[in-house]
Amino acid sequence: MPLTRRSLLAAAAAAPVLAAVPLTPGTAFARTAAPQAGTPGDVVGKITVGYQGWFACPGDGAPINGWWHWSQDWSKAPSPSNKAIVAWPDMTDYTKGYATAFGNLGSGAPATLFSSYDDQTVGTHFTWMQQNGCDTAALQRFNPNGSEGPTRDAMAAKVRTAAEAHGRKFYVMYDVSGWSAMQAEIKADWTNKMSAHTASSAYARQSGVPVVGVWGFGFNDTNHPWSPAECLDVVNWFKAQGCYVMGGVPTYWRTGVNDSRSGYLDVYHAFNMLSPWMVGRIGTAADSDAFYSSCTVPDQDDCNAHGIDNQPCVLPGDISARQRAHGDFMWRQFYNVVRAGAQGVYISMFDEYNEGNQIAKTAATSAQIPVNSGFLALDEDGTACSSDYYLRLTADGGKMLKGQIALTATRPTQPVTGGGTGQPPNLALHKPVSESSHTQTYACANAVDGSTDTYWESANNAFPQWIQIDLQAATTVGRVVLTLPPPSAWATRTQTLSVLGSTDGSTFSTLVGSVRCTFDPATGNTATVSLPSAATTRYVRLLFTANTGWPAGQVSEVRLYAS
Q: How far is Cα 480 from Cα 557, in angstroms, rounded to an integer?
């Protein structure tokens, strides 16, 4: 089993936190955002998620032919005594699972796991990214020259396909941990294999050039032994190839202490973007506040002074260490990095079930985890959290980064859809959505993101137009509630539309014929369409044929309710 970043944590935790000092009340929190060093692109001003894509199972067709990263011993099925993960995925959205040696789930269902090698798995992950404002995926690429190489090569192609299909961006991020011949081999790998992916329309570009990441220079351990000259050579080589180079660097890169070797500042300053590693360094919201004063702000100032984009890490917290605090830990980090003026945010990580820092859907309750496995569910602290909660929290963090919602220290996302207010659940929230068209950036995903500040707008002067929600299973729908942005921003208008339903996404029947819906600021710019009788349907399509306020279909939120 190859070395991973987890091996860095023990040393980092043991090192004195020299720079982490308490905040002085009433001072640090007054800081205003610094100007951006770069211009918006596919990483500046965006949410980037670290994507491992490194899980495999026997029988999935992957060249590695083993329980890749699920088990300590990849030749044997994962079990309570042979596991490499500390959290259990919610398997609901996967069409295929592979039987493990764990006991049944608390619900009585068999304990199965997904394979990243299955196209449906990668497609599902990129669907979640699309639904939750994850703009760019940084595909982790470890030393590809051993037995894992063919599988990693195939995963790069699968990620490319999924990114293209779901309107996401991706780039190759090399993790050089334990890669002894890195200096020469990383150049050969880029030249002979990975650079070909930059031809994709989905490959991330910044300042007009392809993005490439290098994680691991300057770390103070035996897995990262290269001299400053060797590291600088690699960074400058990539820049000479016409790349924008993102560097995953030690937490204390600027001061050269603790997890960072001294004498590497010129290496760090050679990168176009820096992303200081934070996994294992913080575990509470108070820790994040301390780092805001001691690292986040001075790091940002240093990057601004040197024309470098800063992309701090935000992590949901290790569920096995009970760090998450039903979202308070992660949201505090979003708040701190955004108010410091960060140019982007790097989520550590999307699918890191090994370290427990995944935002991907995770078992919400004991019913979704194997009995006697030792895993914790998202409700471990007594607060119920839906399995997609940290995806939804990421979506709101992205909105705050982009200025779509105001800077706030209070997380706007509730742990469970509906927020425990007594209201029935919105069946459409974060569900897959499609459209006939959209104009500019006003895509259909805005209509199911839970925010009335974002909206879908169809192509102008081209009625009829439609937006469609996939409820993912036959579902009873009795009421449709439509909203437009806040009354202070949008004037009264009346839209004419009909409601259609389908069980297969191709043949539709009329659930509600043509109706005129008036959106009035005096009543919250909201309109309700009740079905004459509750209908059971999987796909709900709203067909717009007129709008007195603008020549297009417009809606900020589509909310579907059972009654």
A: 10
Summarize pLDDT for 68-125 with one digit per residue, the tens. Answer: 999 999 999 999 999 999 999 999 999 999 999 999 999 999 999 999 999 999 999 9
State the burial class of residue 65 (Cβ atoms within 10 Å of its Cβ: 0-12, 13-18, 19+). middle
Contacts of 418 (CB under 8 A, 6+ apart): 424, 425, 426
The C-alpha atoms of residue 146 and residue 547 are separated, in whole angstroms, by 60
Q: For 432, left (φ over 0), alpha (ψ -120 to 50), or beta?
A: beta
**DSSP three-state, residue 124:** helix
CA angle (279 as vertex; 275, 280 as ends), nearest 5: 140
For residue range 236-287, list pLDDT tens digits in order. Answer: 999 999 999 999 999 999 999 999 999 999 999 999 999 999 999 999 999 9
Residue 426 DSSP code: -
Residue 235's alpha-carbon distances to 109, 136, 179, 232, 341, in angstroms, are 49, 21, 16, 5, 25
Give me the long-range contacts of 472-476 (CB less than 8 A, separation at least 24): 472/93, 472/431, 472/432, 472/538, 473/538, 474/503, 474/536, 474/537, 474/538, 475/427, 475/536, 475/537, 475/538, 475/562, 476/534, 476/535, 476/536, 476/562
DSSP line for 490-541: ---EEEEEEEEEESSSSS-EEEEEEEEEEE-GGGTSEEEEEEEEEEEEEEEE
pLDDT value for 426: 85
Q: Which amino acid is at 261?
A: R
What token pair was written down for 63? Answer: 């060249």
- Give dist(CA 409, CA 331) in Å, integer: 7
Which range of 136-150, 521-535, 549-563 scores highest in mean pLDDT? It is 136-150
Q: pLDDT of 158-214, one tens digit each? A: 999 999 999 999 999 999 999 999 999 999 999 999 999 999 999 999 999 999 999
495 bridge partner residues: 517, 547
